[in-house]
Amino acid sequence: MMKPHKTMLLHLFEAGVAACKPEVCLPPYLPTLKNADKICVIGAGKAAAHMAAVVNAAYPEQCYGTIVTRHGHAVGAETGAIKVFEASHPVPDQSSMTAAKLILAEAQHVPTDVPTLALISGGGSALMCLPAPGLALPDKMAVHRFLLNSGASIKEMNIHPIFSQTIMP
Question: Does pLDDT of 48 surpass 70?
Answer without folding.
Answer: yes
